[in-house]
Design a protein that fits this description.
Serine Threonine Protein Phosphatase 5, Tetratricopeptide repeat; Rossmann fold; DNA Cyclobutane Dipyrimidine Photolyase, subunit A, domain 3; 530 residues; mainly alpha
């Protein structure tokens, strides 16, 4: 017999027709999961699961962001009159995993159907399917309208192509959306202004940078912070500065703040780095978009409108829009097209463990100490800090790509696997052999010196590979080219770098390899356990 529900007021409700499943990165009231939703017939299921925080040793701020945003979403749904079956982390009955919680809820409520939007992680999708099957419940997985391109759209783009390239996908997205288009041609006559967006700050630094709008924790968030500090005391990171958007209204305010105060200088300095400046001109919107608090269409529309009003230059606006409708959508397409095998790719056969200092920032290398320290303090680093500092060192050192992936998934508040894995394993570590990016992003310490002030306070000299205080990045760069010579032989974009390595005298090459081995020998690879 179907069970009858009661509302908060005690009124009897009909048995559950559709039980709408909402995951922590699906906090969108307008998602397809709510199509046809009737509060008299349907209900919502949400669950906080310790296993999701422990799948990788998640940063405290990442855990707090997800939990706070979920609880605020629940409050908003209940204010509309929706019946939400919500399992809190501290509930004594909490079974610890999403699968066990869903299986129990499905058996208890006996809905006619479970409805969910496409999960953003392969593992979670399979867990949901398994739990539904065990409970004997029908499961309907609906398309995620949050994204501008469906997986079918991406598969049509990829079909028949020998190599995938984001630039061509991005142009299709520009044509489809009409963003920064004039008729059938790109605004300004160029599709991509990346060459204009690689500026470094002058010696005196960026000067006064407008601070991003802050969202002091309310009572719900404070409760979550206290819970995380107690329950996940051994996890990495700090909650001292937690002020991330946790509601759609706050996410919208963060968007407007970025467009009004930082978009106009985002373009030329989006690759720049500076000590003590975690935000610079970046938007801080990725976590809001990845949790679905902010629709990416709103973000790119606001940027395009700023350009139309001459409040931001074309290069700035195009650079931001390319990140959202280009890289973000492209990463998702790559992820779902190649999973689950993508996770195990290791084209460069890298095998070392992750250095322990990635979890502590305890290193004499100034750039890594700065970026990792910032990451542990805020749960944030911008794309060049990730790609060309922490990611670059792991690539040059030869860390197993899956270990690098686990770290990135753990420490950043905006990390959801569909976007994090391709950017880490593919773009940063080149473990997919060129699916995500056309070449490894390999460079010496001189790149970091050119783009930042990090090297000024460092004991190592980015221009040296021998003698006194050679830069580990620069030594490992040559070691990377030498040990991967055969693997990179057919990559046309690595030709100049390969030829430079080939010109090294045999004795010099051997000495570089020895110095690289010495650097590895000095590193503590002890595994981090919370």
């Amino acid at each position: 017999m179907k069970k009858r529900r009661t509302s908060a007021s005690g009124a009897k409700l009909e048995p559950v027709r559709n039980l709408v499943l909402v995951l922590g990165d699906q906090l969108d009231r307008h998602s397809s999961a709510f199509d046809g939703f009737d509060a008299r017939l349907d209900a919502v299921w949400m669950a906080e699961a310790a296993a999701e925080a422990g799948h990788v040793p998640s940063h405290k701020a990442r855990i707090a962001l997800f939990l706070s945003a979920m609880r605020h979403f629940r409050e908003a749904l209940e204010a509309e009159g929706a019946h939400v079956h919500y399992r809190r982390l501290e509930d004594p009955e909490n079974r610890g995993t999403l699968a066990l919680e869903l299986e129990e809820a499905a058996r208890r409520l006996e809905p006619r159907k479970l409805v969910i939007v496409e999960p953003g992680e392969w593992r979670v999708r399979e867990d949901i399917r398994t739990a539904a099957k065990k409970a004997g419940a029908d499961l309907e997985i609906r398309q995620d309208r949050h994204f501008l391109a469906s997986q079918d759209d991406f598969d049509r783009f990829a079909r028949g192509r020998k190599q995938l390239r984001m630039e061509f996908f991005y142009r299709e997205m520009r044509r489809r959306t009409g963003l920064l288009m004039k008729g059938g041609e790109p605004e300004g006559g160029r599709w991509n202004y990346d060459a204009d967006n690689r500026g470094a700050f002058p010696k005196e630094g960026p000067g006064k940078v407008p601070a991003p709008v802050s969202f002091p924790p309310d009572s719900t968030t404070r409760e979550v912070i206290e819970l995380v500090e107690h329950r996940f005391a051994g996890h990495p990171g700090s909650l001292r500065h937690f002020d991330w958007p946790v509601t759609p209204g706050q996410a919208e305010a963060a968007l407007q703040d970025f467009v009004a105060n930082r978009l106009r200088l985002f373009g030329p300095f989006q690759d720049a780095l500076w000590t003590g400046q975690p935000w610079l001109y970046h938007s801080r919107l990725s976590s809001s978009m990845n949790l679905k608090l902010l629709d990416p269409r709103e973000a790119v529309r606001a940027a395009a409108e700023a350009y139309g009003k001459r409040a931001a230059a074309l290069a700035c606006t195009e650079g931001f829009i390319r990140q959202v409708i280009g890289w973000r959508e492209y990463a998702r397409g790559v992820y779902w097209r190649h999973m689950p095998g993508y996770m195990g790719m290791n084209a460069l056969e890298a095998s070392l463990p992750l250095p322990r200092f990635y979890w502590t920032a305890d290193t004499e290398m100034s750039c890594l100490r700065e970026v990792i320290g910032q990451t542990l303090e805020y749960g944030y680093a911008h794309h060049i800090q990730r790609l060309m500092v922490t990611g670059l060192f792991a690539l040059l050192l030869g860390v197993a790509p899956r270990e690098v992936h686990r770290w990135y998934l753990a420490v950043y508040v905006d990390a959801v696997e569909w976007v994090e894995l391709p950017n880490t394993l593919g773009m940063s570590q080149f473990a997919d052999g060129g699916i995500m990016a056309s070449k490894p992003y390999a460079a010496t310490g001189k790149y970091i010196d050119r783009m930042s002030n990090y090297c000024r306070a460092c004991r190592y000299d980015p221009a040296r590979t021998d003698g006194e205080s050679p830069c580990p990045f620069s030594v490992l760069y040559w070691d990377f080219l030498l040990r991967n010579r055969a693997r990179l032989a057919r990559n046309p974009r690595m030709g100049l770098q390969r030829r430079n390595a080939d010109r090294l005298a045999a004795a010099e090459a051997k000495a570089l390899r020895r110095r690289a081995d010495a650097i590895r020998h000095e590193i503590d690879f002890q595994e981090y356990r919370p």
